[in-house]
Design a protein that fits this description.
By secondary structure, the chain is of the alpha/beta class. Helices cover 45% and strands 19% of the residues. A 6-stranded mixed beta sheet has the order 1-4-3-2-5-6, with helices on both faces. It is globular and about 45 Å long.
């Protein structure tokens, strides 16, 4: 049942991403790559203090470990282009930043497993084996490392 629920969530998320996610720097439409072994998808806003606090740690983690481990990682802003630009000017990050441009962020976040709609929200997924770990609240580099390793271990067990 868990795999079925994950597949349904992934399908909904893919449908949302085609229409409503754009790369921040150039507004190019974006989709979460289904073939990525591990995906880290972080939802944030410039007005969210815990979001602003976690991003430098997440950026350092991605630069030192995530890229080398071929982890797909993106930060999806639920904010205006102006607010995102202002924040990133003072706090640049090493991973791709997208913006949600749709009209119903609450429903969109539910498709990624965020039932309460809180920020920051991160989901660590391993689509090939159906693993999904939602994390509501501020994320540290250590917690992120642990969640990515857990995702990889879950897939090794299913082989």
């Amino acid at each position: 049942m868990k795999l079925h629920a994950f597949a349904w969530t992934a399908l909904l998320a893919a449908a949302v991403s085609h229409a409503d996610f754009v790369r921040h720097r150039d507004n190019a439409p974006q989709t979460v790559p289904a073939k990525a072994q591990v995906q880290v998808i972080n939802f944030w806003a410039a007005w969210c203090a815990p979001c602003r606090k976690e991003m430098p740690d997440m950026s350092k983690w991605y630069q030192s470990k995530g890229k080398k481990q071929k982890v797909f990682m993106t930060g999806i802003a639920l904010d205006s282009a102006e607010n995102v630009e202002k924040f990133l000017h003072t706090t640049p990050v090493s991973y791709p930043v997208w913006r949600y441009t749709g009209k119903d962020s609450r429903n969109m976040m539910k498709t990624f497993g965020n039932k309460v709609g809180g920020l920051p929200y991160t989901v660590i997924r391993a689509p090939q084996c159906g693993h999904e770990e939602p994390i509501v609240g501020e994320l540290t580099a250590a917690r992120l490392d642990q969640a990515v390793q857990k995702a990889r271990a879950a897939c090794r067990k299913k082989k």
